[in-house]
Design a protein that fits this description.
The complex is a heterotetramer of chains A (398), B (156), C (307) and D (136). Chain A is an alpha+beta fold and 398 residues long. Helices cover 49% and strands 12% of the residues of chain A. Chain B has a 5-stranded mixed sheet with strand order 1-2-5-4-3. A two-stranded parallel ribbon of chain B has the order 6-7. In chain B, strand 4 and strand 5 form a beta hairpin. Classes of the chains: A alpha+beta (398), B alpha/beta (156), C mainly alpha (307), D alpha+beta (136).
């Protein structure tokens, strides 16, 4: 098809760290022959903030807010994983009502994350209308979260030993109304995604990952469930309310982009149902328990299912009020390597779709380098920037 | 198979390789072993019991102990088996798990650059997270890492 | 002297020059506003395209390394000039074209393609990966839609028995060709979308893949002129559609109604469709577009033969 | 072959109101739990410093003027604050509160972010002391 291009000449197409396809910084290099990708490589680290090092100099409570800011989209789940870990170490049992509220917020967050993903993925495919509508509908969930917690992102619901905010009867009503609206919309989106033949041409049989390949690539979350691997931490290692009220597993077997769309959309539908169940059974009780400032020495592991897949926290305490080591394995790190295999042989036009198909979150991923600029940090104020601009243009004109 | 039975089974299977077992939580098993035994133990875990590698954690025990620890976390359902290798801080070397778990590569790259651990025969040793102009020999997650001025991007 | 003044007015003020540029910006705004409203957004204010253009014209022009500066500067000018010249032969606002001669339809069609060619050359000239890929895609797409687009324009010409836009319009004023040649109408409009790289045919400038395609390295004046050229082409194309298929244009109101109707059609397709990959675009045009138009031609000949 | 499946949506939008909300939106009501600017009420404060200790971003500082008389001055840096409300959770005497309606807090200079709470005379005294410190 692309015989007009010189066959012997291969292009290297860089995508990122600044590129319209990626809303977050990551660098990919694709070697293309005409329109077909021949090889790919990945380089991360553009969003490093040194969080894993920084936690070693802050108290347990301060770390909660630091870790919540690892990711703007799945902030609650990071804080939850950390809280579960610390509470395990301290031997504290969180009141059941607090656990259910945590779960409700986690599921609301999953809804917001998946709807956001749907929009981004549609945008990558050049289907901006679906993008606009899914993001419009996502506002419903943002509003709910705002009413519930006061913030649209970084809800800060968790506190070590419980939750800050109670779920009142009026919230109950608001959530149900929002969910009813979203359920109707999501059913419609499922229809669009699985039936619109132009959209299907961009998703069906693109970047197929078989069951075996998914196991070899070690992918997690919806990406692996789209390939038929039954792996969901909410079921495998139930935490919070998932232990008492099991959630349904969503599985697709095709492993192509369409399956990744369908799995996420069906997870949305399941989340709506699940939140309704939790609202029905919301137990009465305390919101928090006391937790000591110093956490007993020991090591623990907490695994949760983030919207993007399995989130793994390893926490080591040495008995002081500062953690000794916290290691975070984010789902994107497990998924990102699969992209470099998946894109080979695909059209360049499909590459952004494949990339987004795993729902990468680079800021989750890039968190550990220390950029220690205290003292030497060069913050430019407006005047300095203006001066620089003047000098730049003077240099140019001469 | 319940957790206890499986964990007991794992314990029996790996008894030749593992020096010491700890059971910190009911669903966890933590075994220390030497770096020579790591590959065989990991192969056993994957092929016989179907565990998958979930993360590789590095821990710095501090300059006074002069050791680094590297933890391999294997999971299946709710069970977690951790294999722990204690390394010499001056020359930390472990075999790469990439032949058994191909997806271990990014984890090993991460741990390698953060702790200065050498993974023998790992396919890719290029930097994953650290900047290209990061000073050689500075491993940021070691406790005694000298980070003042290492990465002052603004001054460059 | 009078003749010279008339030419000057035609070229600089009406119908090409300033009036056409302004008209093009208004149509661009209608397009953007409609897309926004269909996507449940507010959309820009009416002067947004004008503001964009002024801002771009004021911007610094950056020359990428390794480019031929003369080509870099003049390609946008030639492209815009082509589009503006094409407007001389079409009945803007329903007034008779400024210039008219037998065969001006073909000249118009080729003048319209000039912009696309300039775009492709500009992309190759700037030598960036994205520009190069964008240029390749632009030219590939040109070869895909050009044939059906031309055939769809020639359909009315055949029944009218003339290649002069004026005469074809006179013929189509008597009967609305949209009813006798519906396929031609659809192919012409969709072909226009392909020409203007409007979604779903925007793979040559797909922002999520190749940033801005051939125009990636363009900023400031060059970008403004290319964009203006595309907007002018939209107006010319819509005028041709209205003149040929929608029963001709009789007065300015008629013109606005018919062109905006066609634009609404384009916008609806634009908002409800996913971007096609370049191989899918080519496949669509050669497999369906051309074939359909040929079927249309077969009918025309059969009917002509019978009558 | 189904195309234009979103047709119904766009038709609805064409004749409906846009979903975009203007900014600033006069009709907007702040959610009840919105965490805005922090306010400190000196009554009841015992100077336990728990709010300062657990602040993840070191936005708070409590100066003790006179411990016996319970006179304190709180220095609050809005620019540093992450609005997590941990300080409110920590305060056992309900001295801290986050304003629901003060959320549009941007400013063009960092000086205007710093807020001193406490008795006016105490604040003055503190500020004077700090300027003489600087000049030395």
């Amino acid at each position: 098809m692309m015989s007009t291009i010189n066959k012997s000449r291969r292009f290297t197409v860089p995508i990122g760290p600044q590129h319209p396809a990626l809303k977050e910084p990551g660098h990919f290099e694709f070697v293309v022959d005409g329109e077909i990708v021949q090889s790919a490589s990945v380089r991360l680290g553009y969003g490093h903030r040194g969080i894993e090092k920084a936690v070693e100099s802050r108290s347990w409570i301060q770390n909660l807010y630091l870790l919540e800011r690892i990711c703007g989209i799945c902030s609650h789940i990071h804080a939850t994983a950390y809280c579960i870990g610390v509470e395990q170490l301290a031997g504290v049992t969180v009141p059941i009502r607090a656990q259910v509220i945590r779960t409700i917020v986690a599921e609301l967050e999953r809804i917001h994350s998946h709807l956001l993903w749907l929009g981004v993925a549609a945008h990558e495919a050049g289907f901006d209308t679906l993008f606009m509508y899914s993001w419009r509908d996502r506002e419903t969930i943002m509003d709910i979260l705002e009413t519930l917690t006061g913030n649209r992102v970084n809800y800060s619901v968790n506190i070590l030993g419980g939750v800050k905010y109670d779920l009142l009867p009026e919230h109950n009503e608001a959530i149900r109304m929002g969910l009813d609206f979203l359920e109707e919309r999501t059913v419609h989106y499922v229809d669009v995604v699985t039936n619109d033949s132009l959209f299907l041409r961009r998703t069906q049989n693109i970047a197929v990952m078989s069951y075996e390949q998914a196991l070899i690539a070690g992918v997690t979350g919806p990406t692996t469930r789209a390939s038929g691997v039954k792996r969901d931490i909410r079921l495998d290692a139930p935490y919070l309310a998932y232990a008492n009220y099991p959630i349904k597993l969503m599985i697709e077997t095709h492993g192509d982009l369409e399956a990744r769309f369908v799995v996420r959309l069906r997870e949305l539908l399941e989340s709506y149902q699940y939140i309704r169940t939790l609202l029905d059974v919301l137990p009465e009780g305390e919101l928090k328990t006391r937790i000591p400032r110093r956490i007993k020495a020991g090591e623990t592991i907490s695994r949760v299912e983030a919207p993007r897949g399995e989130l793994f926290y390893f926490i080591k305490s040495n008995g002081t009020d500062i953690p000794d080591r916290i290691h975070i394995r984010t789902p994107t790190l497990a998924n990102i390597a699969s992209v470099t295999h998946l894109v080979i042989g695909q059209h360049l036009a499909d590459v952004p779709m494949v990339l987004i198909g795993i729902d990468p979150c680079f800021s989750c991923n890039d968190r550990m380098t220390v950029v220690d600029n205290e003292g030497s940090c060069d913050v430019w104020d407006g005047e300095k920037l203006r001066q620089y601009g003047i000098e730049y243009y003077q240099k140019r004109s001469t | 198979m319940t957790n206890d039975i499986l964990l007991k089974l794992v314990q029996e299977q790996l008894t030749d390789y593992v020096m010491e077992w700890v059971i910190p939580e009911p669903n966890r098993l933590d075994g220390s072993l030497s770096s020579e035994q790591l590959l065989t133990a990991a192969t056993q875990l994957k092929n016989v019991d179907g565990f998958y590698l979930v993360a590789i954690t590095g821990i710095d025990d501090g300059a006074e102990n002069n050791t680094l620890e590297i933890l391999y976390h294997f999971c299946i359902k709710v069970m977690i088996v951790t294999l722990r290798v204690t390394l010499d801080r001056n020359q930390p070397t472990v075999p790469s798990l990439c032949t058994i778990f191909p997806y271990a590569s990014p984890y090993e790259r991460e741990t390698g650059e953060m702790f200065g651990i050498t993974f023998t025969s790992t396919p890719d040793t290029s930097r994953l997270f650290l900047p290209d102009d990061w000073t050689e020999g500075v491993y940021p997650l070691r406790k005694d890492a000298q980070l003042e001025g290492v990465n002052d991007v603004h001054d460059k | 002297m009078i003749e010279f003044l008339r030419t000057l007015v035609i070229l600089l003020l009406f119908p090409t020059g300033l009036f056409l540029l302004f008209n093009a910006m208004i149509y661009q705004w209608i397009d953007r506003k409609l897309v926004a409203r269909l996507q449940n957004r507010v959309g820009p204010k009416w002067y947004q395209p004008l503001a964009d253009t002024i801002k771009l014209l004021a911007n610094e022009e950056v020359f990428p390394e390794g480019t031929n500066h003369i080509l870099f500067v003049w390609l946008p000018v030639v492209g815009l000039a082509g589009a503006l010249t094409a407007a001389l032969y079409v009945p803007i606002l329903g007034l008779s074209p400024a210039y008219s001669f037998s065969g001006d339809l073909l000249v118009t069609v080729y003048l319209l393609s000039l912009l696309t060619l300039c775009l492709g050359l500009a992309g190759v000239n700037t030598r960036g990966q994205f520009s190069m890929l964008g240029a390749t895609r632009t030219l590939t797409q040109l070869f895909a839609y050009e044939a059906p687009f031309l055939l769809a324009l020639l359909g009315p010409a055949v029944v009218a028995g003339s290649l002069q836009i004026n005469e074809i319009m006179a013929y189509s004023s008597q009967q609305w060709l949209i009813f006798t040649q519906p396929i031609g109408f659809v192919v012409l409009l969709v072909g226009l979308m392909g020409k203007l790289e409007i979604p779903p045919f925007d793979s040559p400038e797909a922002e999520t893949e190749i940033v801005a395609g051939a125009l990636t390295e363009y900023s400031g004046r060059g970008l403004a002129l290319f964009r203006l050229g595309q907007w002018v082409e939209l107006v010319v194309g819509l005028t041709l559609v209205a003149a040929f298929y929608l029963g001709g244009i009789h007065n300015p109101l008629d013109y606005v109604m018919k062109t905006v109707f066609s634009l609404l059609f384009i916008v609806t397709l634009q908002t409800t469709m996913t971007r096609l990959r370049i191989d899918q675009t080519v496949g669509l045009w050669w497999r369906y577009g051309t074939l359909l138009v040929l079927v249309q031609w077969l009918f025309i000949y059969l009917i002509e033969g019978v009558s | 072959m189904k195309i234009t499946l979103m047709f119904r949506d766009i038709l609805k939008s064409l004749f409906g109101k846009p979903a975009t909300e203007p900014f600033p939106n006069p009709e907007q009501i702040e959610p009840e739990r919105l965490r805005g600017k922090l306010h400190w009420n000196p009554d009841g404060c015992t100077g336990c410093q728990l709010c300062v200790k657990d602040c993840p971003s070191n936005a708070l500082k409590l100066f003790v003027i006179d411990k016996a008389k319970k006179e304190f001055v709180m220095r609050y840096d809005v620019g540093m604050c992450t609005f997590c409300s941990q300080c409110i959770e920590n305060c056992r005497f309900n001295c801290l509160d986050m304003a629901q309606d003060e959320w549009a807090l941007s400013a063009s200079s960092s000086e205007s972010f710093i807020e001193f709470y406490g008795k006016e005379t105490n604040v003055k005294q503190l500020l004077e002391a700090s300027t003489t410190d600087d000049s030395e």
